[in-house]
Structure formats: structure tokens, C-alpha cells
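Lab channel / #folding
Pinned by the channel admin:
"Please post every new chain as: sequence first, then the C-alpha cells as a reply. Keep commentary short and put observations after the output so the thread stays searchable."

First post following the new format, from NK:
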Amino acid sequence: MTPNNLGRLLFISLLCLAPMTQPVSAASEAKVLGVTTSGTSFSVTISSPDTGCDRYADWWEVTTPEGKLLYRRVLLHSHVNEQPFTRSGGPVDVAGNEPLIVRIHMHPDGYSPHAFSGSIDDGFSAIALEADFALQLADQPPLPKSCAF
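Reply from TO:
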């Protein structure tokens, strides 16, 4: 094998391995872009790679930093042609200074690590959650019963 052919073989091998070395979770593409509050009601702005009922952001939720579910806003349909979108929910029974996490869940991919943390009093800012943060909440009600479209 000539050096030129060896270089081509190495280049092709690296191209073939590149997708396996950088996996991208579909849920990681979904992001909370912003959180605002009015009293104890929340407005959450979301960007998600919805394709229809087969893949869509199906809820956002408010948790404690320890992973206790405080509130979940179930989304009743996909938002294929409405990106980003904002949905409101609440009231959430919390004190103004209580630390909170707001995150998004994708059907069927799971939770996104792109979340926000903060408090009603101090506001919210973007964070990256650990991949295994409070995964048990995915089975806790309320859960979507169906997807309208």
C-alpha cells in the first residue's frame, strides 16, 4: 500500500467513525430557552425538534434541585410549525426564594439536559443537568394521555 492510499484509507476510516464518537441525543436538542414568572405562575419558552406525535415536547416541569416534582405542564400536541413556543402553567406552590429547576421532556426520547434554574425572587438562568437527574419522574403523573397532532 502506498503512503497516498494509506492516507485515504485513514481519512475514510475517520469519517466512518465520526458519527459513533459524537452521539447526539434527540432529547438534548430540546431546550428551555427562557422562564418568566408572574406570582407563582410560570411561562416557559421551549425550542424542540418536533416532527409530529411521533416526536414532540410532551411536557415541561418544575422540580426541586433534589428532584422532587412540584408541577408539570402537559403539552397536548406537537409544535412542528411553531418554534420556539411559550406555554404557561401554575400556580406552583413554592416560596419566592425556593431554588427550582425547570426542564423539558421529549416523547419518546426523554428529558433534555438543557434546563433553567433559579427562583421566583431572583429569576432563572440556563444550566446543563446531569443526564441521570431525576429520571424516575418520567413515570409520575400527570402524564399525557394522547397527542392531538
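NK: Residues 25-138 form a domain with the Immunoglobulin-like fold (CATH 2.60.40).
TO: also worth noting, The helical segments are 3-21, 26-29.
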